[in-house]
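@channel anyone free to eyeball this complex?
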Amino acid sequence: MPELPEVETYRRYFEETALGQTVAHLEVEDQRQLTTDFDTLQQALKGAQFTGAHRIGKHFLINLSTSKTLVLHFGMTGDLAYYRDAEDTPRFARIVFHFQNGFRLAFIDSRKFGRVGLAESIEAYRQEKRLGPDALDISLLQLQASLGKRKAPVKSLLLDQKILAGIGNWIADEVLFQAQIFPAKLANQLSSAEFKRLHAAILYVLKTAIEEEANYGNFPKTFLIHARGWDDSALKPAERQVCPQHRTPLNIIKVGGRTTYFCLVCQPQ
DNA sequence: CTCAGTGTTCAGTG
DNA sequence: TCACTGAACACTGA
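replying in thread with the prediction:
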């Protein structure tokens, strides 16, 4: 789930819970999820206070009072939970930060694609990962400049965190649906009208998703995401995979190796 | 039992 | 080195 709106929601949750806390110790179930070795990480965190919460795309960056930066990436299934009692430890809590006030913050991640480690600073991390501008901050001109000469499918480029940071598979489909652009259209074939719609759709989809705290069920009825079956109980099979505009069946293809939903009527090839 | 998957990275090709 | 494609990664749940 964690695309930009989820990570922004986690960031706000963190600000209301773990921000300001001082780390007592750390529990790590599987060292393969660390990008900094355990001893170094424990050393850097012990006695350090969490002093700030930032986000670049899907990357979550926590300032430490010791001047280093803690970086969390949620992979495909990451989440956070702040709680006090051991019996409230969520299922799949892979890494647990214990605070001096007795509370804990769990990094939950059933599929273990998430990563936690240290960076020198936010800026150093951005450069190391070569992250593009956050998807909420990219301008129309920047977007046009970085996509306009590329001959890959526009969807693949939206997913490239080096071009713009924060868009994942579901939001890429939603953005292209709202912008009425065929997902496999080559970026260098896009008209300036299409770039304009694309840029507006990125902002519209992300802002809407953040307002709803990334609860897909609350997204507008006009969103494609309801057809994806993100929650099996929320949608009857007969209603699934139908365009919210035309009620016609959606098309499902692979673009850049990723499952892609779109409506051939709204997004002509 | 098999398989797809919300993300990233890397090997391979041109 | 760049642009692009496709596989691999670890694990759960359908």
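from a first look: The beta strands of chain A are 23-28, 50-56, 59-64, 69-73, 78-83, 93-99, 104-109, 115-119, 251-255, 258-262.
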